[in-house]
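Hi team,

Below is the intake form for Putative hydrolase of the alpha/beta superfamily from Halalkalibacter hemicellulosilyticusJCM 9152. Please confirm the fields before the structure is written into the shared record.

FORM ID: S-0412
PROTEIN: Putative hydrolase of the alpha/beta superfamily
ORGANISM: Halalkalibacter hemicellulosilyticusJCM 9152
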Amino acid sequence: MIFINNETIGGVPTLHVVDREKEQAKLPTIFFLHGFTSAKEHNLHIAYMLATKGFRVLLPDAIYHGERQKTEQNRDLKFWEIVLTSIHELELLKEYMVTNELGNDQIGVIGTSMGAITMYGALARYPWITSAVSFMGTAYYQVFLEEQLKMLETKGVDLHDLRHQVLHQIKPYDLTVQLERLNGRPLMIWHGKEDQVVPYPFSEKLYGELEKYYEEHPHRLKFVAEDRVDHKVSRQAVLSSVEWFEQHLLKDQIS
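The structure came back. Fields below:
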């Protein structure tokens, strides 16, 4: 039986999903990071599928989202604050697992849209992440920021000071300027070709730049592009992500 518990870990409301029979065991752990305007509950179907395979899954609410949302908040201008806060909070969640002896050294991170963007920054910061999956995200922090600001400027928002402030904050987490930090860790990239929110070419370009880093272990890098799919995670993407973590957080350790 799959058990779902709503916990607060380090001040972060988090859904903890695990097979009840394995609740106190040291299990490979996967952190699922939700998208912009979404919440932790919206990805429970994927967490359930992962838990049935033997994983412990933690789904945190990002700041200004879910249980942490306040109706008066203007989240459009706080996008990168949300991303950076989630990167820092990911370490709190990981330390909770270590302190309570609930996880082993096999740790996966999966994210959807903003959550995938967060995941890429976490890969740049944390070498303890073992494997990762991106659903329609982008690792090109500085480029994506500029596109966001152009869109906001069309609405008459003065962003001069914000641009320099945010660029300074996000630069250390821009994985695309330090791809060697991946160090061959397994990464699956999925994107729908019709996505206009986080444009598909971001993922295609990243995969092309990463191929040379995975020449010795090409099976550790996977790119899945789907035709006629926009900014929505398909069932194929979900199934592929579950298989990916089975391969790289379970089977790789047995073989």
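SUMMARY LINE: The first helix runs from residue 44 to 52.

Thanks, M.
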